[in-house]
Structures are given as structure tokens and as C-alpha cells.
Write a structure and sequence with these properties.
two-stranded antiparallel sheet; Hypothetical Protein Ta1238, Chain: A; mainly alpha; 4 strands
Length: about 190
């Protein structure tokens, strides 16, 4: 039973309203499922799921806590994107959230050490999953930028998603350092 439903009835997961290729956004607005807003929402959802995948193999409680916070933040990003006004009652995403990401980036980067070349994405399993999440996040960022070229997106959303991919890269390197995994430089003759 779903709490709050009349008489404690069951709420079906499917509604059949999307069978024609459209869906409803908050406020009742109908949109095609291939609309740039839905593309951005789908990519943010995939980024969130990929972060969850990375968290599922991580044994480091500090990193898991960060990743779970990022997942919660991405739900706020999605809520802001779903609304044509960019505002959703009770959903907070602000400069303090970006400042937290920047502090986490600085800490992870300092611990990971200097980087003098490109590196191959990989290392330990969690690090490799964080690299994948970073790539998915970059795609989501491109979708959000594309949406912004059609209709305004809250600047905080653009900034947050940009910092998030940086953080995921820094965390992937930090995890390799903590797990004693070697980063493989590219080109192969570059010094790590």
C-alpha cells in the first residue's frame, strides 16, 4: 500500500499516459519524451545511477557518504530541471552546495597528488566506476547546456553539474591512492 492513497489502496507504477511518447512535468505541462528537457533529466538520472553503482563497490565510508550526498543533490537538480521555472518548493540547491563540491575537490586532489599527464580511466573497481560516472556526468552536462540554449536553466544547475564531473575525477584518483592502485599515464612514455 502507498501511504496517503485513499483507503490505503495500491498505486500502480504505470499510468499508460506515456504510451504516446509524451509525459507530464510538474505543473501539468505535457512534453515529448525527446524534448531537450527530458533528455537532460534522463542523463541526470543516469549520472545518479552511475554514482550509486560506484558507491555499491566502495568500502570507504567517507567516500560513500559523499556519493550518497551527491545522489541526493542530483535529485534536486532533476527537480529543478523538470520545472520550467527552475524553482520547486522545498527543493534547495545553492552556492553552498557548489562550495561543498569545491572543498571536496580540493581535498581529494591534494590527497591524490600532482598529475603531470593524462591517465587511463581505471585502477581499482570503485575508481573505474567513478571514471564512468564522470563520463556520464559530462554527457548530462552537455544535455543541460543544450536545454539552456532552448530555454533558460537556473545558473546554479549548470555550475553544479560542471563541478560534479570535476569532483568525480578527483575522487577516482583519491580512491586509487587510498587503495594503492597505480595510475597508468598516457601517452605511455609520460611520467606519472
Amino acid at each position: 500500500m502507498v501511504p496517503g492513497t485513499p483507503g490505503g489502496s495500491f498505486l500502480k507504477l504505470y499510468t499508460r499516459t506515456g504510451d504516446s511518447g509524451s509525459t507530464h512535468l510538474p505543473g501539468g505541462q505535457s512534453a515529448s519524451k525527446c524534448h531537450p528537457r527530458l533528455k537532460a533529466l534522463g542523463d541526470i538520472d543516469e549520472a545518479n545511477a552511475s554514482i550509486g553503482l560506484a558507491a555499491s563497490t566502495c568500502d570507504d565510508g567517507e567516500i560513500v557518504g559523499m556519493l550518497q550526498r551527491l545522489q541526493a543533490d542530483l535529485l534536486a537538480v532533476g527537480a529543478r530541471l523538470a520545472s520550467s521555472s527552475g524553482q520547486v518548493s522545498g527543493v534547495r540547491l545553492d552556492d553552498g552546495d557548489v562550495a561543498r563540491l569545491e572543498a571536496w575537490i580540493d581535498g581529494a586532489w591534494k590527497e591524490a597528488g600532482p598529475l603531470n599527464s593524462f591517465i587511463l580511466p581505471g585502477g581499482g573497481e570503485t575508481s573505474a566506476r567513478l571514471h564512468l560516472a564522470r563520463a556520464v556526468c559530462r554527457r548530462a552536462e552537455r544535455a543541460v547546456v543544450e536545454l539552456n540554449s532552448h530555454e533558460p536553466v537556473a545558473p546554479i544547475v549548470l555550475t553544479y553539474v560542471n563541478r560534479l564531473s570535476d569532483l568525480l575525477f578527483a575522487l577516482s584518483r583519491q580512491m586509487n591512492r587510498r587503495e594503492g592502485k597505480v595510475e597508468i599515464p598516457w601517452p605511455a612514455d609520460a611520467q606519472p
